[in-house]
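Hi,

I'm pasting everything inline rather than attaching a file, because the server keeps stripping attachments. The sequence lines come first, and each chain or strand is labelled.
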Amino acid sequence: MFDPRPIKLTVNGRAIEAVVDSRMNLADFLRRDLKLTGTHLGCEHGVCGACTILVDGASARGCLMLAVQADGHAITTIEGVASADGTLHRVQEALSRHHGLQCGYCTPGVVMTLLELDQDREGRALSEDEIREALSGNLCRCTGYQGIVDAAMELFGSQHSSQT
Amino acid sequence: MSGNLGHDRIGAAMPRLEDRVLLRGQGRFLDDLAPAGLLEAAFLRSPVAHGLIQRLDITAARGLPGVEAVYTYADLRPLMSSDHMPLALPAGGLRHVIDPDVLAVEEVCYVGEPIALVVASSRRIAEDALALIELEIEPLPAVVDPVAGLEPHSPPARLGLPDNLVARTGIDYGDADRAIASAPHVIRDEFRLSKGGGHSLEARGVLASFDDIEQRLTVWDSTQMPHRAKSILVDALSLHESQVRVVTPDVGGGFGPKAVFHPEELAIPAAALLLKRPVKWVEDRFESFTATSGERDQIWTMEMGFTNEGKLLAIRGTLRYDHGASTPYGIALPYNAATNLIGPYDLPAYKIDIQLCLTNMTPAAPTRGAGRPQGTFVMERLLDRAAEKLGLSREEIRRRNFITPDQMPFPIPVRQRDGSTMEYDTGDYPRCQQEALAAAGWQDFPARQKQARAEGRFIGLGLANYVEATGRGPFESVSVRISPSGQIIAATGATAQGQGVKSMVAQIVADGLGIRAEQIEVVTGDTQLTPSGLGAYASRQAVMAGNAAHHAALAIVEKIKIAAAAMLETQPDDLEVSQGRVHVKGVPDHGKTLAEMARALAGAPGFALPGNLPPGLFANSDYMANGLTYTNGSHVCEVEVDPATGTVRILRYIVVHDCGRMINPMMVEGQIVGGVVHGIGATLFEWMRYDAQGQPLSVTYADYLLPTSDVVPRIEMHHIESPTPLNPLGVKGAAESGTIGAPSVIVSAIEDALKPFDIKITELPVTPTRLRSLLRKAKEVRS
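And the predicted assembly:
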């Protein structure tokens, strides 16, 4: 059943050439072949959002994409978000400041969704409802979303949240 | 300068130490571990709820390239010390002890029960091989309802048992029969309450590796209770204690199910022993729905007697409980539910018969809240009904029944698991409710509600109060060691699944040593580094490990001072420890660093140790519980219901919470908000459904809905701090509390919103379909 296919892509700015089994999904390719284990799998049927990555800047479910579909595309994973020297991105800093993570399993997907939101808003201030809508594709069982929403409100919000 | 500048203190909202690693995707979760030579496993699981295996042919599967082994029960049995997994938690009321099997022997008793295990070079190949196993099962009648299952002529959920009454227990104090017979008012109602699963985003997983040179088995387990797992593995596999190490990597959420030892946690180590290679199994989400324990139906048939003034006289009834197909975790859950019914109220007489029915569904065990939300729900619904009958307001009937602060400590004649009598330690229940009502604008609400109704909108306000027994014993351990290199390591038997346990322990030890929390390395969940420990259950770790950390920090400071006094030729009382140094009070330069102290206490050949102390800069504390400490809370929420669709929207949600002294208010609030949202899910969305044959119907997150960010409100939080006298830090638990009040308060608000229709909700979850059906019936009655 092994059906090898060559692919070329960039991952976090690095050019990658690989041969993958045609049925391997992108999340497994990132996790197993490239050892980028920050992309987590929570449901493997496209609901939970833990495996959210950016494909050419747009969010996608790593579990619903095959590795061969990434051929020719630029992928960003959580490992490509902080600076090389370890300095956290302001989204990551805000999540910590607002206790927007607990077990950390959904966190990489949440960060990727927030990066996309920041890019799409084009500088426009967002309401809490808009932020909650944007995050509704990322399940989190720990935080009740409040710390995540507060972090996003601080960075992108039209009004600062009453609670920190 | 003062020695107390610049150190982390108990009570501060300190950012967590865990965050930086997790935010960068550098956490090490079970599935991230990939040792050389790793094999991966997949389980063949029962496709039927009840049946007898007639044929199990693994020949073709064994022949698939890449498959290393296919195991059935017969292959693993020679490694096992007993036929069944040696699990049973002690429980007085158990009539049938039904420990699960590592793999099914002949009879399968729920969909998802493991039958065979394939180990292959990858999970994909292992799953390919599953498809090649030939399995024939003769179906048997399935027990899928805990009420019908207890009827005399019900088929058995497990062959050979005389009945399905797996356990029977109860509570009986006061004279409830007489009180109800003579009560001026009696109301009766029946409740059918589902709760659903834990649903940690990281499902379960196990990796086992046997070192043939050292003859040691290491098991990485995504568990809440590694020490229990180790002890079961030692028993089940007849290994020496020194041969088994269980380690928890980063764990992506627990919420109860990971406290239960499941068959895979034995099967995978057994496979690693047989193959002498590392074997990993990571649960997929379908397996998580069917093979991981969760909570299910509780059916309560209840009566409440009360006076003309609304004072409670007695509660009496029966709780029938779907316990699933085995008894992996005792019978704590329905007993929690029954005891938590009492809540913050003075209930003079209470009699409940608790019947646990064995069924052909996944074994039931606690998820966050552990039965308490359901018990609270029954009490709060009965109070609302009684208030309505008497024409009292909902807050007034509660006020008239509260246990008051001057009655504390308040004993309740109910025996607990450890044999002691229930006793509430501290709390101001009337004030807690009052503050919640004030924050919600309770007094002004009727006017707003009237106006909304005039506009055709149905809004309602709900109220619920509850308590939670937290900090369950018997003990938890923390050891603090300062090494000659100056590194400070705190190792604890407490385990971390996202609560921030490492930060909590570090914050307390840092407070004691006068340093920054980040200077301390905290080790959790490793049986090799902590000889004893229990782990995460019953909202206990801040109470138990927190106080152990406090004791250990005090003890190591004491030891430092005695040793330093000898070295500096002064008295221990003249010294203080701060900023990583011990020095004469007020003279920071006259002292030693902690590393110097550790080196002095490490000893040198032939020289005496300073202060004639035992060697090593080390302190261990096994903190023993001094009884359960009771957290309490009052929730008020406002909802809007659309009668046309049955949709409920939560507009506001207020929590006034009292968990005693808070070690880190930010983390406490994180626990409460997460708990409330778990409760919102259980009330409005989450429903593990089975059909009449015991087939699960909700096995994806498209069928089983978890609450998402767009359907949950902001949780507004207020705190009261009533420190408990039961532990030195004065802390109570907070991890499950938020969940407990949520179903009660939301349903109270829905009924209030739909008052014109006179709806009475007796089932959880409250789905749009169920609400529409109630509305239809209400309209039929009116017309």
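The first strand of chain B starts at residue 39 and ends at 45.

If the labels don't parse on your end, tell me and I'll reformat.
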